[in-house]
């Protein structure tokens, strides 16, 4: 079991300037990441970048599922209103 | 990934316009995320094929490397990786998925 905070820390390590929010039950997690690094990248690429940050934990099945929502600061403005 | 798994996956994605790698079958999805994708495609009323990765350990592992994507389900549209359950839901809710599928079927 790992905590949402631990997942958040893993993601933050790869995206130091991002807004990261993670919720979960110890095995299944949901994350929202807002980062400049997503600009000009399609959704698949954005999610691949986040999955890369938690690669080991997913490979070893410590994280069973990680549902993602990724935004650039600009697209975040439109959904957060 | 073995060369056999690679060529098997190649042929599957290139010979089906809409293809879903999932856990279970259309009628009996074995996972909530796979079920989401099936429900969306059923709602769109589009013909699609599925591959049950629980039946084939080589494909189950191989598809993760093939798509550089760590989770199942995975959707392929016209031979191109579209995404997993989260992306399918987002595209469906924005209406983009319907358009993309129509374009794929017409091509």
Automatic annotation (TrEMBL), chain A:
It comes from the Bacteria. Belongs to the BolA/IbaG family. PANTHER family: BOLA TRANSCRIPTION REGULATOR, BOLA-LIKE PROTEIN 1. This is Uncharacterized protein. It comes from Hyella patelloides LEGE 07179. The lineage of its organism: Bacteria, Bacillati, Cyanobacteriota, Cyanophyceae, Pleurocapsales.
TrEMBL record, chain B:
It comes from the Bacteria. Keywords: 2Fe-2S, Iron, Iron-sulfur, Metal-binding, Redox-active center. Residues 18-81 form the Glutaredoxin domain. Transmembrane segments: none annotated. [2Fe-2S] cluster binds at residue 31. Pfam families: Glutaredoxin. PROSITE patterns: GLUTAREDOXIN_2. GO terms for molecular function: 2 iron, 2 sulfur cluster binding; disulfide oxidoreductase activity; metal ion binding. Belongs to the glutaredoxin family. Monothiol subfamily. PANTHER family: GLUTAREDOXIN FAMILY MEMBER (PTHR10293), GLUTAREDOXIN-RELATED PROTEIN 5, MITOCHONDRIAL (PTHR10293:SF16). This is Glutaredoxin. The lineage of its organism: Bacteria, Bacillati, Cyanobacteriota, Cyanophyceae, Pleurocapsales.
């Amino acid at each position: 079991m790992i905590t949402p905070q631990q997942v958040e820390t893993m993601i933050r390590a790869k995206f130091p300037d991002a807004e990261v929010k993670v919720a979960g039950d110890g095995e299944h997690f949901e994350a929202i990441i807002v980062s400049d690094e997503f600009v000009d990248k399609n959704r698949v690429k954005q999610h691949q970048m986040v999955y890369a940050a938690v690669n080991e934990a997913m490979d070893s099945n410590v994280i069973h599922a990680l549902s993602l929502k990724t935004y650039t600061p600009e697209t975040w403005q439109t959904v957060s209103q | 990934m073995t060369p056999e798994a690679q060529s098997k996956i190649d042929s599957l994605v290139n010979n089906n316009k809409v293809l879903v790698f999932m856990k279970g079958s259309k009628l009996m999805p074995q996972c909530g995320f796979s079920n989401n994708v099936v429900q969306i495609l059923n709602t769109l009323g589009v013909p699609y094929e599925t591959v049950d990765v629980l039946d084939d350990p080589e494909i189950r592992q191989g598809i993760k490397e093939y798509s550089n994507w760590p989770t199942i389900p995975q959707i392929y549209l016209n031979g191109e990786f579209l995404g997993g359950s989260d992306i399918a839901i987002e595209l469906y809710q924005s209406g983009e998925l319907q358009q993309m599928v129509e374009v794929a079927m017409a091509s």
